[in-house]
Here is the input.
Amino acid sequence: MTDPSVVAPDKVLIFDTTLRDGEQSPGATLNTQEKLEIARQLARLGVDIIEAGFPAASPGDLDAVKRIASTVGVEPRLDRDGNPAEPPVIAGLARANKRDIDAAWEAVRPAKHPRIHTFLATSSIHMEHKLKMTPDQVVETVREMVGYARSLCDNIEFSPEDAGRSDPRFLYKVLSVAIAAGATTLNIPDTVGYTTPEEFGRLIYNIRENTPGAKNVVISAHCHNDLGLATANTLAAVQSGARQVEVTLNGIGERAGNTSLEEVVMALYVRQPVFELDTNIVTQEIHRTSDMVSRYTGMVIQPNKAIVGANAFAHEAGIHQDGMLKDKRTYEIMEAETIGLSHSKLVLGKHSGRHAFRVQIEKMGYHLDNEELDKVFGRFKDLADKKKVVTDSDIEALVGDEVFQPQETWELVNVQVQCGSNLIPTAVVTLRNTATGQEVTEAGFGTGPVDAVYKGINRIVQAPNVLTEFLVQAVTEGIDANGDVTIRVAVPESRGYSHTAQGRARRRLFSGRGIDTDIIVASAKAYMQALNKLLAAQDEQASAVAIGEGETTQI
Ligand code: KIV
Ligand code: ZN
Here is the structure.
């Protein structure tokens, strides 16, 4: 079996950066267990390379990458034909300095196929104003740091940040130095989503033609979506010879996001005769992976999002429905089943036992220990009592809600609400402090029942924040559906800023999601999850500063 980053002539490698660039989306903070579960699902989806994080950001980030490397990075998997396949390459991001490269190497080295991904900006604006380095200093740093990374690891990716706005001649020089120093993949980022497809395609073509050694390494495209052109630019790059694409599920990422995995993969699949290229993606896993990423990051998918939006396969207009009934191909260029979408089906009933439940959960791709299984099974039984039809979507929602919780400082014990047309909404909330076991009860009044509950919680958990988003959805159709509440809270400005790997200030947002047939309870759970993430991040930041890791701790 070969190294999964060796590219066959008719293949495009899929490098997924959901856990690194995707996690840089405001509010998309993931805990380690969620990252692990997403990484497992990415392996099942068939991605070739998983960028698992930015290990130098904090001890927590390093630990998460290491855990992914030592589990998902060594476990054999099945390819789309059901044959045994190599584990994915696990990559860790590092700025071009020894401290970052050492942290990345420590984190990825347990993987069977580790990769260090190091980067340095090459545009005049970044060199002058951000790095405060001369072009010659940048060239020398690339030579030294790519060489240093290569002395540790055989698989090195180098990215000239802001390549899209860099002088092409300078770029060829830097890239040739990176190749000579040992880079095996050259990734070309359009960091600010500035280029057009024609320009970006030409840039990739010119790099291949003008950079000594470029035809012996893999050229990769990394596009951002500021002008809505990320997918078009990435496909243009592929047509100019790029054989690795850097993508995220649902296109999440900084600002307007990154190129979306599902769009590029399905474009290559549906328009195979145009591109004549293939990927290793198991397309039937796309929907499940997209759903998992949305659930854990709290980044809700817009209904009209290509491929994975709720309306992507819905045909409402009468004229469309008529055509669809006559022949599906009139308005459908791909089948919903290709991305793993099937009509929600009854998976289990209220008489199903724990064993049948475990078998079903494992078939759905979750690995729960006995304690976790007990929790989710209990929730399933409660739900089956209230709701006639329990679907796979319900079960996925329960697993997300019950198992992948952040480390909890406060646990919701009870919530009780009184409201109505002539009443002041009043809530009584009981929380348990998980460290001391102490239960605290408080009341709150508000403009509505959710406001009252949140005020009651705030009196107990002293964590100043501003609620910036509140969204209620139903997990499935019908009046008895589970309510699914997603919220986002922001930390007040004076203490809420951190930095990305590229050194940009980033306001700290925390998302929370709660599932319950009662939407007030779901709202309380969502708020508790966001608050617990906020408290855990404050603890982690404090410990990072205490051990001298404080400068730009958050990616
Ligand atoms: O957008 C960008 O330039 C990046 C690099 C770190 C590859 O994410
Ligand atoms: Zn990026």
Summary: The radius of gyration is 24 Å. Confidence is low (pLDDT under 50) at residues 545-555.
